[in-house]
């Protein structure tokens, strides 16, 4: 059998994030920092840091804003040959106002009718997308539009027919749909998949899974029949069930700079270990990747395999010269 071209591929939207520094209000902003970000692409960028071959599929306008996004992914060594380019259209954007207590960080979305949301089944190069060891999807994409819902369902069906393992991150977004709507759509999608990612908050809100972290993992495993279930439990780290053993990996201490993208970085590390048949090592790598992401600006972690291995071996944040 021919070796797949990619380790992981994914479909999803990348938006442009415009943010102000901590202590600045958006309504008084004089300048904005730009960071492209999207759950699926963030995860692929993390995997690429670890030496994996990855490809991202989406829709973008053929203009400088679309090219900002592909340039960002090219710097992360993520293949974008499967991107569908639109002669007209827009990228989704969101505006971020960082804050410290007592204020909460605020996110304002402007993403309706983006090129990614307009993607149709017939526009996808399915042979390219499924030439992979794992296809990664999230619960964000089916919430974008009716065509993206159909696209996600088609991707799942085609992956199953081609015997391509599927990874799925629930990633509920309350500004896109209600918990009831999300649960009704996502529950059929995650039946029997290979890797299921879900935060404990989403597990409770969408599927009514409560109790201890272990109880939540078992409930998600029973609900989905997924082969491996990973539930993030915030400051307590991450729990995972592989059908035989319950694993727990505590979170790494970190001085937080930017909280967005940490879950995607963690997923990258876990998938990295899973690809090698070592889920426990993946959980270790995932927690390092999440901590690294929290310690830098932007949604996508920027690191190297050597740096991650050094931190796993006990390296510290002291001066390295």
What layout of secondary structure does this protein have?
Layout: E1 6-11, E2 15-20, E3 33-37, H1 39-49, E4 54-57, E5 59-61, H2 64-75, E6 84-86, E7 93-97, E8 106-110, H3 126-129, E9 132-138, H4 146-161, E10 166-169, H5 179-189, E11 195-199, H6 200-207, H7 213-224, E12 228-232, E13 238-241, E14 246-249, H8 262-275, H9 279-294, H10 305-312
Parallel strand pairs: 1-4, 1-9, 2-7, 5-6, 9-10, 10-11, 11-12
Antiparallel strand pairs: 2-3, 7-8, 12-13, 13-14
Helix pairs in contact: 1-8, 6-7, 8-9, 9-10
* Structure summary, number of beta strands: 14
> Which bin fits the share of residues in helices?
25-40%
Q: How many domains, in number, for the residues?
A: 1
- Name the shape in a single word: globular
Q: Order of strands side by side in the largest beta sheet?
A: 4-1-9-10-11-12-13-14
- Listing every helix as H and every strand as E from the N terminus to the C terminus, the arrangement reads EEEHEEHEEEHEHEHEHHEEEHHH
Number of helices: 10
Structure write-up:
The chain has ten helices and 14 strands. It is α/β, with parallel strands linked by helices. The protein has one domain (6-12, 44-91, 112-312): Ribokinase (UDP-N-acetylmuramoyl-L-alanine:D-glutamate ligase, 3-Layer(aba) Sandwich). The strands form three sheets. It has an eight-stranded mixed sheet, sandwiched between helices. Strands 3-2-7-8 form a four-stranded mixed sheet. A two-stranded parallel ribbon has the order 5-6. Strand 9, helix 4 and strand 10 form a beta-alpha-beta unit. The protein is globular. The model has no long low-confidence stretch (mean pLDDT 93).
């Amino acid at each position: 059998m021919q070796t797949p071209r990619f380790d992981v591929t994914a479909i999803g939207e990348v938006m442009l994030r415009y943010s102000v520094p901590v202590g600045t209000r958006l309504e008084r902003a004089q300048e904005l920092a730009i960071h492209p970000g999207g759950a699926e692409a963030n995860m692929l960028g993390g995997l690429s840091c670890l030496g994996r071959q990855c490809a991202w599929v989406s829709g973008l306008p053929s203009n400088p804003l679309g090219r900002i996004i592909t340039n960002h992914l090219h710097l992360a060594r993520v293949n974008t040959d499967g991107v569908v380019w639109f002669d007209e259209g827009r990228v989704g954007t969101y505006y971020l106002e960082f804050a410290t207590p007592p204020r909460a960080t605020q996110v304002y979305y402007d993403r309706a009718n983006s090129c990614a949301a307009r993607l149709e089944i017939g526009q996808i190069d399915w042979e390219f997308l499924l030439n992979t060891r794992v296809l990664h999807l999230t619960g964000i994409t089916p919430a974008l539009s009716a065509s993206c819902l159909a696209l996600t369902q088609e991707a799942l069906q085609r992956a199953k027919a081609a015997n391509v393992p599927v990874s799925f991150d629930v990633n509920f977004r309350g500004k896109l749909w209600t918990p009831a709507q999300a649960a009704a759509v996502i529950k059929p999608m995650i039946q029997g998949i290979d890797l299921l990612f879900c935060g404990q908050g989403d597990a409770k809100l969408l599927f009514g899974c409560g109790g201890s972290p272990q109880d939540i993992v078992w409930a998600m495993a029973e609900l989905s029949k997924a082969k491996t279930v990973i539930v993030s439990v915030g400051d307590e780290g991450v729990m995972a069930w592989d059908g035989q053993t319950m694993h727990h990996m505590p979170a790494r201490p970190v001085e937080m700079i930017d909280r967005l993208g940490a879950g995607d970085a963690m997923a990258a590390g876990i998938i990295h270990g899973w690809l090698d048949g070592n889920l426990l090592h993946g959980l270790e790598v995932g927690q390092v990747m999440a901590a690294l992401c929290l310690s830098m600006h932007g949604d996508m972690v920027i690191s190297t395999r050597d740096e991650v291995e050094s931190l796993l071996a006990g390296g510290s944040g002291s001066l390295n010269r």
